[in-house]
Amino acid sequence: MKTQFIVGSLGALLCAPLASSADNAAAITAERVSVFNAPLVCPAAPQIGCGSASKPILLDLEKQPGVLEAWLNRAGTIIAIVWKSESSADNRRNVATELKEDRATEMEGRSREQVVRDFLSGKGWYRGADVDRLSEEEAGIIAARLIRRVEAKTPLPKEKAQEFQHDLAESWSRCVTSGKHVAGNPAGQPTCRFEDIGEDIAPKYLNQEQLKFWKEAVEHGVLPLPNES
């Protein structure tokens, strides 16, 4: 769970427990937070950030000298970094350069102040492996979309449709968040596919005729079509 921040203003002190004894002795101020525009929106669920894309970035950032914590906002549009009290200007420049390679640019001025204020509120931000929750949410959105495509062609009992959706979403999110999907894949991109997972799951809920509609549904891909949410 994200550290709870108590803020009176942008310069207010952060009164929550910190990750190291050194930082316990020095409360965090807004000046120790940097924020970056980031292109980490989930293509298949544009209302949230992409857990599988952001997780390795956040975990890598927390290994960098000077970085205490790295966070992603719910929308997947901003990365926030909390610096250690002893971080140097070189530490910050190096991280900014690395993020620029990932097409993330540092925010400045009033827009930065507004985002930092939002970050310090402690709501709607995910640290490191916590973005697995976004992957789980993405799985539910995609599963529901695919099943709606099937239901547009053939009626399904409500309870059966709900169980089918839950089974699909749980299996896909478990695959993505386990880390097994990156084995032998240097790019670190997920190889978990709903069409593959559905081969085992769909026959439990659909008859032979309905399976044809399932195949059509997955052939359209997981991205929302023009008439879909």
Task: Write up this protein.
With about 230 residues, this protein is an alpha+beta fold. The chain folds into two domains: about 20-130, Alpha-Beta Plaits; about 130-220, no CATH class. It is about 45% helix and about 15% strand. It is built from eight helices and seven strands. The chain has helices spanning about 20-25, 50-60, 90-100, 110-120, 130-150, 160-180, 195-200, 210-220, and strands spanning about 35, 40, 45-50, 65-75, 80-85, 105, 125. Strands 6-1-5-4-7 form a five-stranded antiparallel beta sheet, sandwiched between helices. Strands 2-3 form a two-stranded antiparallel ribbon. Strand 2 (about 40) and strand 3 form a beta hairpin. Helix 5 (about 130-150) packs antiparallel against helix 6 (about 160-180). The longest helix is centred in the last third of the chain and has 21 residues, at about 160-180. The chain is elongated and about 65 Å long. The relative contact order is 0.13.
How many angstroms does the end-to-end distance come to? 29 Å
* Number of DSSP helical runs: 8
Shape type: elongated
Structural class: alpha+beta
Assembly state (oligomeric)? single chain
- Give me the count of strands: 7
Order of helices and strands: HEEEHEEHEHEHHHH
Question: Are there runs of 5+ residues with pLDDT below 50, and where?
Answer: 1-26, 181-190
Major sheet: arrangement of strands: 6-1-5-4-7
Mean pLDDT: 85
Helix content: 40-55%
| Strand residues, percent | 5-15%
Top-tier CATH class of the largest domain:
Alpha Beta
| Radius of gyration, CA atoms, in whole angstroms | 21 Å
